[in-house]
Amino acid sequence: MSFQLFGLPVSRGVAIGRAVLVASSRVDVAHYFVDDARVEDEIGRLRVARDAVAGELSLLKRDMPAEAPAELAALLDVHLMLLHDDSLTGATKQWIVERHYNAEWALSAQLEVLARQFDEMEDDYLRERKADLEQVVERLLRALAHGPDASFSPAPAVGARDFAGEDPLVLVANDIAPADMLHFKGGVFTGFVTDVGGRTSHTAIVARSLDIPAVVGAREASRIIRQDDWVIIDGDNGVVIVDPSPIVLEEYRFRQRQAELERQKLARLRHTPAVTLDGERVELLANIELPADAAAALEAGALGVGLFRSEFLFMNRGGELPGEDEQFEAYRAAVEAMNGLPVTIRTVDIGADKPLDRMSASELRHEHALNPALGLRAIRWSLSEPGMFRQQLRAILRASAYGKVRLLIPMVAHLSEAKLTMEALARAKQQLADAGKPFVDIEVGAMIEVPAAVLMLPAFLRYFDFVSLGTNDLIQYTLAIDRADEAVAHLYDPWHPAVLGLIASTIQQARAAGKHVSVCGEMAGDPAFTETLLGMGLRSFSMHPAQIAAIKQRILRSDARRCSASVRDLLLGGAGVPMEPAQRASTRNG
Ligand code: PEP
Ligand code: MG
């Protein structure tokens, strides 16, 4: 039976594919296809893992102390029985043979199928056996990771788009941590749906950077959608259609083709300079998460990198941070790839919905800090770890010897943060000079993401050479709305007069002081805001490479003088008579 779910549209386009349900705790399981020649090997890996787990369980049973409760031995018997049950290992084998999933993926796919069956059981005792099944699968996954053939995987990953004969796949999960999204770069999924998340949560931002359709905050999606269901993800409207009828499917296939044609048309603008109808030149820069993204930035015609979110280098490392040399190599790779174009490297912005390890954002939110968005994140965290901070500063400075580097400091709110940052930078330079390591003097900018920074911008401008507006956080902190929380997503409003006033004020003050000002939040890559930002005087936009062409097209069709006049009206209207949400929505779509 066909049905629809509604969420927040976070990454444009339409994806049609079979659902792959992944439990949040297993999102980091490798997902790749194995080719025909490797199917037998993959089944072999599964067999070895199963035998290893059977051995482990038998040993545990054998060595059980005499005084151990009898239930424990019975429990181990249940685990052994589950392990050998055909519905687990036999069916997992089928996923490998028929779908060419790697063993870990096949196992987690089958776990999702069985978990549903357990959930639906009437008998309490049987329903509770789901936990046992999960423990057995955990053991199998561990055995696969440490098995004799562990080094075998996951190198020969084959992307879904390249795997002939396979149905396209879409990922359905309760939540995906931003770091886990990175696993999916160039991967097998052509779309995402999650139960939780906001429009500018970092999970949504990474989904946009992957340029594949995504809907977040679809509440019950991962509970209602079943493994292998056909799903349409409408990333323009935030709609998820499960088990669509042939007519609906055809309608969306048509929309996919139209979107592809539009994309090809836009790609022709790659070498066209972004100049408004009245001759105002606009700089379009790229936001990147990893050095490898620099290629996409160049491909899209970016004039540089306006935001390199360096924290992605720090994630998923089991608490071990990258050292100075490792960071230096990563920054140098990005700088060299950009061929002399500027690369703006932001110091690490860990915290809030970007945990260091692979704990999910919601786990982090609920278990570790009462209010992480207001807690120890961004420059606050860096200043609380002076050794780590200076190490990063040295690595960034060293990369400056290989191209044009700019340093960007996230979330400044106190002048003391500016002073301490400059002191740390001076020390890092001194250390490099003493060690005879080359670097050049780089420009230092502040991210304007907290209303306090706007309200005292002239004081901050005495310290910084440029500013970059982080509108994602600026909206969050101005309106007191957690950007990652779908429960308040309807109140996260970039058109709020207070938000527009702060953005306009920052642009105007920075320009008046002769300082370069850019916007690197998601508003910069959304064509609905292009004319408003142009009208406020903005001439530098930084966004995901995939959005550059659409923004350029909007700029080519805009008249900056007219935009300024409209913005004056908008700001006056905002200050006097606040617009109703419905009016704002119509402005947005216009
Ligand atoms: C922002 O806050 O707008 C921004 C660009 O930084 P991030 O999204 O990484 O917090
Ligand atoms: Mg930010």
Automatic annotation (TrEMBL):
Descriptive protein name: Phosphoenolpyruvate-protein phosphotransferase
PANTHER family: PHOSPHOENOLPYRUVATE-PROTEIN PHOSPHOTRANSFERASE
Major localisation: cytoplasm
Classification via InterPro entries: PEP-util_enz_mobile_dom, PEP-utilizing_PTS_enzyme, PEP_util_AS, PEP_util_C, PEP_util_CS, Phosphohistidine_dom_sf, PTS_EI, PTS_EI-like
GO CC terms of this entry: cytoplasm
One of the GO biological process terms: phosphoenolpyruvate-dependent sugar phosphotransferase system
Reaction(s) catalysed (UniProt annotation): L-histidyl-[protein] + phosphoenolpyruvate = N(pros)-phospho-L-histidyl-[protein] + pyruvate
Positions of the catalytic residues: 202, 520
Residues where Mg(2+) binds: 449, 473
List of residues binding phosphoenolpyruvate: 309, 346, 472-473, 483
Coiled-coil portions: none
Function: General (non sugar-specific) component of the phosphoenolpyruvate-dependent sugar phosphotransferase system (sugar PTS). This major carbohydrate active-transport system catalyzes the phosphorylation of incoming sugar substrates concomitantly with their translocation across the cell membrane. Enzyme I transfers the phosphoryl group from phosphoenolpyruvate (PEP) to the phosphoryl carrier protein (HPr).
Residue ranges occupied by any PEP-utilising enzyme mobile domain in the UniProt entry: 166-238
EC number: 2.7.3.9
Cofactor: Mg(2+)
Domain PEP-utilising enzyme C-terminal: residue ranges: 264-558
Source organism per UniProt: Piscinibacter aquaticus
Gene Ontology molecular functions: kinase activity; metal ion binding; phosphoenolpyruvate-protein phosphotransferase activity
Similarity comment text for this entry: Belongs to the PEP-utilizing enzyme family.
Stretches assigned to the Phosphotransferase system enzyme I N-terminal domain: 7-129
Keywords: Cytoplasm, Kinase, Magnesium, Metal-binding, Phosphotransferase system, Pyruvate, Sugar transport, Transferase, Transport
Localization (cell): Cytoplasm
